[in-house]
Specification:
Strand content of chain B: 5-15%
Number of strands of chain A: 0
Distance between the termini of chain B: 60 Å
CATH topology of the largest domain in chain B: Alpha-Beta Plaits
Number of helices of chain B: 6
Subcellular location (chain B): Cell membrane
Membrane topology (chain B): Peripheral membrane protein
Helix content of chain A: 55-70%
Distance between the termini of chain A: 42 Å
Radius of gyration of chain A: 21 Å
Pfam families (chain B): Fer4_7
Oligomer: heterodimer
Number of domains of chain A: 1
Low-confidence stretches of chain B: 184-193
Structural class of chain B: alpha+beta
Protein name (chain B): NADH-quinone oxidoreductase subunit I
Number of helices of chain A: 13
EC number (chain B): 7.1.1.-
Order of helices and strands of chain B: HHEHEEHEEHH
Amino acid sequence: MPWELIGTLVKILLVVNIAMGVVAYLIYIERKVAAYAQDRIGPNRAGSPIVPFGLLQPIADGAKMLLKEDVIPGYVSRPVYILAPLIAIVAAIIGFAVVPFGPVGPDQWMNFQIAPNVNIGILYVFAVGSLAVYGVILAGWASNNKYAFLGGLRSSAQLISYEIPLGMSILGMVLIAGSMDLSTIINWQSRHTWGIVVQPLGFLLFLVSGFAETNRLPFDLPESEQELVGGFHTEYSAMKFGMFFLGEYLHVITVSYLIAILFLGGWHIPFLTSPEQTWWPTSLLKMVILMSKVMAMILIIMWVRWTLPRFRYDQLMDLAWKSMIPLSIVNLVATSGIVQLIYSAS
Amino acid sequence: MRPDDPKLKKLEPPRLTFGDRMYLPQIAAGLLLTAKHMAGVAFGNKAITVQYPEEQHVPSPNYRGVHRLNKDDQGRVKCVACMLCATACPAHCIDIVGTTAPDTWPDREKYPASFVIDELRCIYCGMCEEACPVDAIELTGLYDLTGLTREQMIFDKTKLLSVYDATRDAEPMRYTAPPPKTAATEALPSPIS
């Protein structure tokens, strides 16, 4: 028992630290992708002969975040103002508890998951992910500024609206695999076929609402400085502002993990891996496969960001309530009907 | 023009095809376009930006940068302190104190004892240049105008004349290349001196 506890603590430390480091470098990659899409070169100065291509840029960015003046305006509601970015980042981090980074099983020597075999995995991710709304709305309210307040309301309306298709679009996959445990869903996919094949509409709906849920373009109205005088974080500066963005980036990683796990087969590659392989080097290999799928997903999210223009707010709401929610209901009903027919036939 | 004018050309917005209205093909086309640009920069070296400290930007011939005060062939300041530039200036950034010219200068009555331009306030519109009857004040193509304090950005007569020395060979408004870096220009256009 104490060994399990120590192992879990080590895993928590590893996951949190690696996630933070990865986020720092993801911001660098995003700036590079942005530059390349706009025929620029991007950050290339913060480096040295040993570290080329400006790879020290994340450290410079982090130092800037920490050293900038942290302004707390006199008119804000101070405790809530300080609490809001903490909620945003904590809500984003604790979702990682049930994400299987690699194979998990009772007979495994190594479990690549902080809380292995939680049978309500997806439910937990969604429950925790929806806490991000509190960060947004508290930040908007505590700023005591009408633009920030309207921005907070706008963003929370968006987040709540897109939670519905986000949740409904995975239910098809949950019904087919017959479990909410993420590693069981991956194992179902490696025995049969990838989720994107059996649930193409569900994949599309999850992808779009995932973009909206992580406030990425074309749904990044929370941070539209040009059109809407900024969003809920107008009054935030330095590291507090950074924490909101760190939280959003962690959401991007979580959503990419969910897409890879639910629809792209997780750590499965056809004809190469199977759930029976439990030797630890193959487990490590499976982790690398999953990581590369997640990385590809993150790159696609960045690519979309620098391609598509921002939605207008009424279009955003129309898309959620008039197209995506009906479509996800249709998808859910059709899937449950088919699953019922197959299970009653067998 | 009347609304029923026969010369009036009526433009219809292009009709969206079924594929356009489905959004997804257009989204894919957009993604393909950015992918091409990304691949062009990543593999084809097609970035269009200038890497500034290594490559010097060449502004267009009608670029208006830092001012200079021209000297005549005897090395005296050309300005006759007529105040036309200061009057024409919409930003009121030119401050001239004129005095009577010495007796050895038979061609004019006055010359500027002090000639100060606040480069922070200037909007680089070139109206001083237009107003000057003796072509004394001109805007050069120097664009790297920086300073560490506000005081450094207030150019007095000496500094404005030294800009002339630095850009003597360049025709203002027909600027094609950055001036050769000599010991004099090294120190002078940069306001940190």
